[in-house]
Amino acid sequence: MTPEAPFGTGSHSARLFPRPFARSLVPVWTLFLCLALLVGLGGCAGNDEDSEFSADSGEQQIYDQAQRYLNSRSFDQAIRALQALESRYPFGRYAEQAQLELIYAHYGAFAPEAAIEAADRFIRLHPQHPNVDYAYYMKGLATANSGQDFLSRFAPTDHTKRDTSFAKEAFAEFAQLVSRFPDSPYAPDAQTRMVYLRNLLARNEIHVANYYFRRGAYLAAVNRGRYVVENFQRTPAVGDGLAVMAQGYLLLGMDDLAQDAIDTLVLNFPDHPSLNSKGEFDTVYTQDGLQRSLINKASFGLFDPPKPPQFDSRERGGLFR
User: Fold this and answer.
1) pTM here?
2) Do 277 and 314 fall into the same domain?
3) How many whole angstroms separate alpha carbon 151 and alpha carbon 153?
4) Which residues constitute the domain of residue 114?
5) Which comes out higher in pLDDT, residue 113 or 45?
């Protein structure tokens, strides 16, 4: 579901004005100099922010132009137009709508931090607004994308191998939306995204377990696998979590626990790639240690060293050796 800015105006919103400048006695020539500097700076600021809007540009005119920018996906220009609208007409009929659509414009401009800030501002200022659920939804989307760099948006990237703190935060934001606004039109998509984020978090735990296998930290690997099994039920990574537990317990010499994990794996995931055609746990890593090839033994460990177990059922074969 591609997010779109909700249309329709809201009620007038209050806005605090800055305190007036205090007057001071200064020479006349200094006043002229300061006035000239202010005029020059004001002209530059106007050129940068809303030079296309004249002093007599009406609220409707600026709003319509902002809509044209949004429809053409010219998000940077839409941001300038919406900010100009809110700045010039803080009590206007489009003030709240401009704040709401500014969230979408920042998101479309690949500025998730600015979108999150705009969403937080709208939620804080208008907690009872009829479209506040949209602000929660867009905050979740922006948070989910805050962990991506520019290149990852265009190049294939396995996000399960990256920092997942953003995924946890986004899951919490979507959960808040679903909890507070279960009838929101954005709730179904938020729930779908929560499933994806949960699968991502579970898969990340398997990657960490594989890392611990490479480091020889078998108990730590077992703990990661067990965490997936206990906390991420109904995710595709549960099968790998059981395989991690079975392998780790074998390497630790805990045969009974290993067999329990294998039995559970066979019962629930009979087609898991770590199981052979007979339903047996297919591994070359036993409680006696990593089984070494003849070349490795003949070279006293210099050549063809045994590779640590690596589990990823998404790949063909599932278990890499």
Assistant:
1) 0.73
2) yes
3) 5
4) 57-184
5) 113
